[in-house]
Amino acid sequence: MGDQLRRLLAGSAAYQASSLLASALAVVTLPLYTAALSEAEYGYAETLLTAIILLSILLRLGLGEALVRFWFDTEEGPARVALARAATGWTFAATTAAAAVLLVFAGPLSEALLTVRDAGLLACGVLGLWAFTNLEVAYALLRVEERRGVYLAASCANVVLTVALTVVLVVVLDEGATGYVLGNYAASTVVLLGLWWRERRRIAFVPPRWQTLAPLTRYGGPTVPADAAVFALNVVDRAYLVRSQGAAAAGVYAVAVKLATVVIVAVRGFQAAWPPLAYSVTDAAEAGRLYARVTTAYVVVTGAVVCGVTLLGRWVVDLLADDRFGAAFEALPWVALGWALYGLYLVFVTIAGRAKATGRNLPAAAAGLVVNVVVLVLLVEPLGIAGAGIALCASYVVMLAVLHRLTRTLFEVPFERARLAGAVLVYAGVAVAGELLLPTDGLDGLALRVVALGVAAPLLVAARVVSLAELRQLSGAVQTRVRRR
Prior knowledge:
- By secondary structure, this protein is mostly helical.
- The chain has helices at residues 2-36, 39-60, 63-71, 78-104, 106-114, 119-144, 148-172, 176-198, 210-220, 223-244, 247-259, 261-280, 284-320, 332-354, 361-383, 385-407, 417-437, 442-462, 468-484.
- The chain has one domain (2-415).
């Protein structure tokens, strides 16, 4: 168990490195972007970026997830090469054909999505769709081979090039929303071409034969509606805000999402590192114990981050965003909690994937999407962007409940319910008490809230959520890893 957890931490660290770098650079660049872009321009750009990811999920047909799942069931050698070439070949063919069609209808599509006709902006989004989708499959190939060094170098290069190009286009050349979208994906195209050259023996540029593709689509295909429905939450909220509250509200909400990066980083690293580890453990009893322990650790870590965002978010918004975006704090705690719940949802997705019953993801995702739409309609009008954040959280809670009910008979996981309940109660108590009782501005308010956040750790020990021995073990493991690095 200890070796597996260390392996998960090592993988997460490698896959999180680029996200950590992006987060650090975001601290510097967000004030630049929010000063250079209007609220509406920022809203248009972020709405398009989320739509790109949604369409990418549909085009991939779940082949990235299927590649991760079947890699460990396939013998090393030509069979694995054929598996990789099937996934990359289909992705290249599908994205190229889709890009050609989208470019023809760029003007009307931009008007339908953004309520403004801007063919140039949507054309930049089409480039992003093509580059992002192919790059995701290339990254999946590096993950299954556990080539963390190459992944680290490629993803960090992508971040640095993206930030540099976006700053030039948005801040220096004043290209607005178009420059923001183009900067995000032009660098990805360069990194993608480099990875294709490095992995050229495993890359194909023609659709594979059906006999090779069929097993992948039978596994990955059922995940597509579910994955699309889950990510549609991020598109629906922005699109609804654009139409009901205006593009400026969508822009302010997008800043809240951007400032929740500290949670997103943890979730993205977990999302990349967890499936290869979860599927590589063949013994069912051992896997169940691992799933339970990882779930507890995930809740403890992300709970602390969400609690911190809730208590300190006002000061973060004031520091990193232009004054016009100050209302982003209203949605920030809810968005952070929503992303943390998404990471927890991935545990149950993996349970369904382990049993090769991925079709059970769809009812849960569909239920969450329906709840999201209903809560948006009910709460956005009275609460504004905070209502959109609450809708996101409500949808993930429903998805977790439905998916747990559908998967609990497939694979038994002895979840540590007492520890999980204790962690939730401690973090919720500290966050709510801090919000109700402590000042909301000034250095004294900031200091008191930092102290309140520090109280959470001894409360976790007192509630037996974690033990001192576990904390010492974790500290020793981190120190050992740092010394080795």
